[in-house]
Amino acid sequence: xxxxDGEVVLVTGxxxxxxxxxxAELARAGATVLVHGRDPRRIADTVAxxxxxxGDADGGPRAGDRVRAYQxxxxxxxxxxxxxxxxxxAEPRLDVLVNNAGIGTSVPGGEVRQESADGYELRFAVxxxxxxxxxxxxxxxxxxxxxxxxxxxxxxGQQAIDFSDVMLTRDYxxxxxxxxxxxxxxxxxxxxxxxxxxxxxTVNALHPATFMPxxxxxxxxxxxxxQGVEATMRLISAPAAETGTGRYFNGLDEARANDQAYDPExxxxxxxxxxxxxxx
Length: 280
Prior knowledge:
Elements: E1 8-11, H1 17-28, E2 32-37, H2 40-58, E3 67-71, H3 77-90, E4 96-99, H4 122-144, E5 148-153, H5 174-192, E6 201-207, H6 225-237, H7 240-243, E7 247-250, E8 253-254, H8 264-278
Parallel strand pairs: 1-2, 1-4, 2-3, 4-5, 5-6, 6-7
Antiparallel strand pairs: 7-8
Helix pairs in contact: 1-2, 1-6, 3-4, 4-5, 5-8
C-alpha cells in the first residue's frame, strides 16, 4: 500500500464510485482526505466510511481529524469557485488535487441536451470547465505545498473538439458530448504541464479503467472499481520521476491520447476559450 502520511488530498466527486473508493484507499494509506460532494447526506455517509478506513489504518480514535467534508455543486462555475474558496480558507496545504467529478454519456438526462447554470453544455461544464476553474484557483495553494500533484480523471472515450460548435447546439449526442469533455481534460493536462515547474507541481491525466460499475455507466461493466483505484493511486503516490508530467495514462500504462491533444493550435484555442468562459 502507498504511504501518504501527512499528505492532504482533495477528491472531487468523492461520494460515489471511483471517487468514494479512492477516498477510502487514500485514508488507509495515511492521507488527510478532503471529501467533496454535492448532496449533504451522501457526503456524511462517505465521510463516515472514509473515517472508518482511516481508523483501521491509525488504530486510534483521531481518524476523524484526517477526513474533512466539502459541499459544492460543480454544475456551476460559482460552485467551483465556492469550493476553491472553502479549501483555501480552511486548508494550510494541498498536496494533491484529483479532478474526478463528472457525469456520463446519458446519466443524468438521457440523450437530451442540457445546459449548466452558466448556460454551457452540461457535460463540457461539469467534466471539464469545473475542473479547469478549480485547478486554476487552487494553483497558488498547490505551489505553496510543493511538491504537489494534479490528477485529472479522464477517459479513453475521446472525440476531437469541434471549435465551431463546442457547446454542441447542432446534432447533439450525449456520447459525443462526453468524449469531447474528456478530451478537453487531456488537452488541458498537456497544455498546463509546461506552465508549471515540474519540481513543484506535476499534472497528469488518466483513463482509470473501462466501464466500472458506477452510476455514470449505463450498460455492462468490464472493469472493477479496484482497478480504477489502483491506477489513480499510482499517479498520486508513485515517484514523480516515474509518472512525469503532462502525460496521459490508460490504466497503469502511459498511452497516446486522441491526436488533437498534441496539436498546439487546438490547445491554444481551448486555453483561450476556457479563460473566456470561466473568467480566469
